[in-house]
Design a protein that fits this description.
Helices cover 56% and strands 8% of the residues. It is an alpha+beta fold. It folds into 4 domains: 184 residues, Jelly Rolls; 240 residues, no CATH class; 105 residues, no CATH class; 38 residues. Helix 3 packs across helix 5. One of its GO terms (biological process) is sodium ion transmembrane transport.
């Protein structure tokens, strides 16, 4: 009898009905990252319905061993499914592991598991479900671009790109005065480094998250292709560029054809991607923006670009001069035959500055004159860009991002003015980041300017997958009104944002609303103990939506979460237009009352 009561209580947690028409496995299947009724993915992305999720349980290779080893090695973290973990007891009962299992465990931890979020912060283990670590496979998922190893490898790769960006024009321009071994040395280094980088790139599927600056790790993961799909895409899109930049043409055709070294620079096309996904550079960027301001931080890359431009100009000037034996150089630089290569570079760099800013350099040969004219015009354009960025850097780049930065700066000023505590500051910043996600739009204003058809289409695009996961909200009458029903429900959903620690519902409170989880993680707490965790695509509170009842559990956000709320009044207004749905809801309400009466009767009988 007690087991039956506990089962009924468990089924009604969060508003899950015990009626057969309901998904009785909702809570259990959510913890397994997939729903039996809807076969849902574990991420509901705002960019569209995800086709797959890498953290979902479908790539089983190491199950219990992987779980035990992560619990053995990693810091103890309060789990959503188990309030405490006795690490010593786990070590005692865990069977011995082989070297291959130990190696796989550490390889997974450092190479296959995401370690950093969109702001470069370490991901805490309570953001994952226990099953997330069971289903990791290199052959299916590849290396993770946010893992520890790939993050530090990106740092090394970026440094190699910068060296390549600087050394290639230097070796070409000053080839006649440099030792032969100098160019060969860097040629070997670039060939080895770029070969390793290509092997890592083909093994690391990148997420198609786009330019969004704030995202959850599950949204990032849902847009990553499987390894086999990524390899096909890489071979069709990147193979040619990688091969051309790897091959040491100077060693094959001879060092006299120095211009072939420029093919190495094709690899620089990946510089932006490597910097943007690397957590270390992300933290540096945010630190600089915090210290000097967002607008000033946007000017820094322009300054670095000008230095690179001057470097290439200096190398081009020296290369053009040596083609004709530095004709006429002795008239304005009498030491050009006796100085070192670095003195020559410094002099040419000074001349390059003269091409960018007004100076009295007079080229002698036609080649020098052509280079001078070219770089003067280009330099004038670069200088104009610099001035433009100083006056309106943020406006010309990213309007919505600029508005978001202004909103965040305004928020920080408000926090300082009100002298709020650091804890409150962190909560406010987390809320705004969750709500705006790096882009600030007046969405209500935009939607208000649209006609009803467009507003309905957008509402359906954002919520239809969440609605159809609820069994009693599915409609397939085939009378031409199915889409109308979904549109009515979608128009009644109101988006809500919660940060870690916020309570969506509280045990014992009266409830009349239902909630759909778009993204995030929420814990179901009963009597102070965490009973289950709900993730993206799950829902709760549907019992309260049918007939107003007291909440049987507290639902608390474990991490920043985005939810849709459907109110009792809006729902019953909609179903009054659809008699079949209204009849179904009335039957479910009667069934629930019958079961609750049986439970009460059995409880009374047991007490007596």
């Amino acid at each position: 009898m007690q087991d039956f009561i506990q089962e009924i209580h468990a089924l009604t947690v969060g508003g899950v009905s015990p009626n057969d028409d309901f998904d009785k496995t909702q809570l259990d299947s959510t913890s397994r990252r997939e729903s039996d009724a809807s076969n849902m993915t574990d991420v509901a992305s705002p960019y569209g319905t995800p086709e797959r999720s890498k953290l979902r349980s479908n790539t089983i290779k190491k199950t219990e061993v992987t779980r035990r080893q992560h619990l053995r090695r990693l810091p103890t973290v309060a789990s959503a499914t188990a309030p405490t973990v006795d690490l010593e007891n786990i070590q005692e009962v865990s069977p011995p592991i082989t070297f291959s299992e130990w190696l796989f465990d550490y390889f997974s931890y450092y190479c296959l598991i995401p370690a950093y979020d969109s702001k470069g912060r370490r991901i805490t283990w309570d953001q994952f479900d226990a099953s997330d670590f069971n289903e990791i496979s290199f052959l299916r998922n590849g290396l993770h671009p946010k893992s520890i190893v790939i993050t530090y490898f990106d740092v090394i790769t970026v440094l190699a790109y910068i060296v390549c960006l600087a050394e290639v024009p230097f070796i070409i321009g000053f080839n006649s005065v440099l030792p032969d071994s100098y160019g060969e040395y860097f040629s070997v280094i670039f060939t080895i480094m770029f070969s390793i980088e290509s092997l890592v790139a083909i093994s690391t599927p990148n997420s198609q998250i786009g330019k969004t600056t704030i995202y959850s790790i599950r949204e990032y993961e849902s847009l990553r292709p499987f390894l086999n799909l990524w390899i096909r895409e890489w071979l069709s899109s990147y193979l040619f560029v990688d091969l051309v930049s790897i091959i040491p043409f100077s060693a094959i055709v001879g060092s006299d054809v120095v211009w072939l070294r420029l093919l190495r620079l094709l690899r620089i096309l990946r510089l932006g991607q490597s910097i943007s996904r690397c957590a270390i550079f992300t933290r540096v960027k945010l630190y600089v923006e915090e210290r000097i301001g967002v607008v000033s931080a946007k000017i820094l890359p322009i300054g670095i670009g000008i230095i690179v431009f001057l470097h290439y100009n200096a190398c081009a000037i020296f290369y053009a001069g040596q083609l004709h034996g530095f004709l006429g150089w002795s008239q304005f630089w009498g030491q050009n035959q006796t100085v070192t290569v670095w003195d020559s570079y410094l002099w040419c760099f000074l001349l390059a500055v003269g091409n960018l800013f007004p100076m009295s350099y007079k080229p002698q040969t036609k080649m020098e004159q052509l280079f001078a004219i070219l770089f003067i015009f280009v330099g004038a354009g670069v200088y104009a860009v610099l001035v433009g960025y100083i006056s309106s850097a943020a406006i010309s780049v990213d309007n919505s991002g600029r508005l978001y930065n202004q909103k965040m700066e305004e928020l920080k000023e408000y926090i300082t003015w009100r002298q709020l505590s650091n804890e409150t500051k962190d909560k406010l910043i987390s809320y705004y980041e969750t709500k705006y996600r790096g882009k600030y739009f007046e969405e209500d204003t935009l939607l208000g300017e649209m006609n009803e058809a467009l507003r309905t289409e957008i509402a359906l695009h954002n919520t239809v997958d969440l609605i159809t996961k609820v069994p009693f909200l599915r409609r397939s009458a085939g009378d031409g009104r199915d889409e109308i029903f979904y549109a009515r429900i979608a128009s009644c959903l109101h988006i809500r944002y919660y940060i870690a620690g916020d309570c969506v519902t509280k045990e014992g409170d009266s409830g009349a609303d239902m909630f759909f989880i778009l993204s995030g993680k929420l814990d179901i707490v009963i009597g102070g103990e965490v009973y289950k965790s709900l993730y993206d695509g799950a829902y709760f509170g549907e019992v309260a939506l049918i007939n107003k009842v007291l909440r049987t559990a507290t639902v608390q956000a474990k991490m920043p979460s985005v939810l849709y709320r459907l109110t009792y009044q809006d729902f019953h207004t909609v179903i009054n237009e659809f008699s079949d749905i209204k009849t179904r809801i009335m039957d479910l309400a009667l069934e629930r009352e019958r079961i609750l009466m049986q439970v009460a009767a059995m409880a009374t009988e047991k007490r007596s």
